[in-house]
Write a structure and sequence with these properties.
241 residues, alpha+beta, Arc Repressor Mutant, subunit A, Alpha-Beta Plaits, four-stranded antiparallel sheet, disordered N terminus
């Protein structure tokens, strides 16, 4: 179960990006709305909605906003109708990139994503062109100093698929997507609070970027992140700052 993880670097960059964009609540409202539309407005029976609500709580979103987004998704309030769309492409040196969006206008969104790719040295691919390089899974990250033996015991008992330790002592728990909420709840009950907990597309292999290529790759990722319709970006690129 040994391995290498850039979880601390990812956590830092994600927090910086969210703060810079200033659109955390907007993204969460879209996620709550779509989750409620797809799985109903009851968080107890809708794991995706529960996860979105947990994120909203962590982001200090007012409960009224959460309630309105849930009701809108469940069809009880009027509002924009968002749909999920995924784009795939290549960055610097062929690095794989997945761009998950929520949009009420596909034509606008694809034009903006394509423009960002082309302007910053990447190019869009066809559906499935890079997705095979990633695994859809739940990921929970724990800071160095966490008791590995106790976490491993609790995680495996809760149904986790794997526990990976990195060279800094950080721990990564991986789950099947449908088991994510159960494992997260069980680990919290056991006293383990994750630094980050999300359902992600995890790359099978990673490519480290340094120097000029690292700068170029970061500019491309930032350009994509800054698009209003973008919810999440996954890449096998690791930027060595």
């Amino acid at each position: 179960m040994a391995g290498h993880s850039k979880w601390a670097n990812i956590k830092h960059k994600k927090a910086a990006t969210d703060a810079k964009r200033g659109k955390v609540w907007t993204r969460l409202i879209k996620e709550i709305t779509v989750a409620a539309r797809m799985g109903g407005g009851d968080a107890d029976t809708n794991p995706r909605l529960r996860l979105a609500m947990d994120k909203a709580s962590d982001a200090n979103m007012p409960k009224d906003n959460v309630v309105r987004a849930t009701q809108r998704g469940a069809g009880n309030l009027d509002g924009a109708s968002y749909e999920e769309v995924r784009y795939e492409g290549y960055g610097i040196d062929g690095a794989a990139i997945i761009v998950d969006c929520m949009t009420d206008n596909r034509i606008r969104t694809v034009a903006e994503v394509r423009h960002a790719f082309s302007k910053f040295g990447g190019n869009m691919g066809t559906e499935g062109s890079v997705a095979f390089m990633f695994k859809h899974c739940g990921q929970l990250l724990y800071a160095p100093g966490t008791d590995e033996d106790k976490l491993m015991e609790a995680a495996l008992e809760a149904g986790a698929e794997d526990i990976i330790s990195d060279e800094e002592g950080g721990l990564e728990v991986l789950t099947a997507p449908l088991d994510f909420s159960v494992v997260k709840t069980a680990l919290e009950a056991a006293g383990f609070k994750a630094e980050m907990a999300e359902i992600i597309m995890k790359p099978a292999t990673e490519t480290v970027f340094e120097g000029e290529n690292a700068i170029k790759m970061q500019k491309l990722l930032d350009a994509l992140e800054n698009l209003d319709d973008v919810q999440e970006i996954f890449s096998n690129a690791i930027i060595d700052a």
